[in-house]
Amino acid sequence: MCENSLYEIAKKWDLGKYIRMSKGEELTGGRERVSILADCVEAIIAAIYIDAGFEKAKGFVLTNFKDTIEKAIKNKIILDYKTKLQEVMQKNGDVDIQYDLMKYEGPPHRRKFYTQVSVNNKVLGNGTGYSKKESEQSAAKKALKGLEKNNG
Q1: What is the 3-state secondary structure (H, E, C) of 39-103?
Q2: Quick one: a GO biological-process term for this protein (predicted)?
């Protein structure tokens, strides 16, 4: 399964608040970190498989990932929002896509970044994340959603 799909399920379940982790990991945003939450969902699936067998694990996945599976069948899963935004915007020729770090806050071990994405100097989206990369992906995702709303 795709890390983002696993992460979305973890967020839906609010899994972060149930994870036992070190104080240091917690202070650095571990309860919201994509990789940790995705790994925990994988571990739950593995535990079901080990405890109850393949059919139960399969049933669990089919039930909990129904929306994700349907999106995958329709080829509507985006793994990299920045690349997708670039593809959409450059359909009609070259454009200037700019990601600007607007601010960051918090201590070094728990920094939150705020990014805005502009196309030809027009702001299309703002995003946040616990890394610059994550905040840029968030901004691109919001830009794509805005474009979809305006064109759909």
Answers
A1: HHHHHHHHHHHHHHCHHHHHHHHHHHCHHHHHHHHCCCCCCCHHHHHHHHHHHHCCCCEEEEEEE
A2: tRNA processing
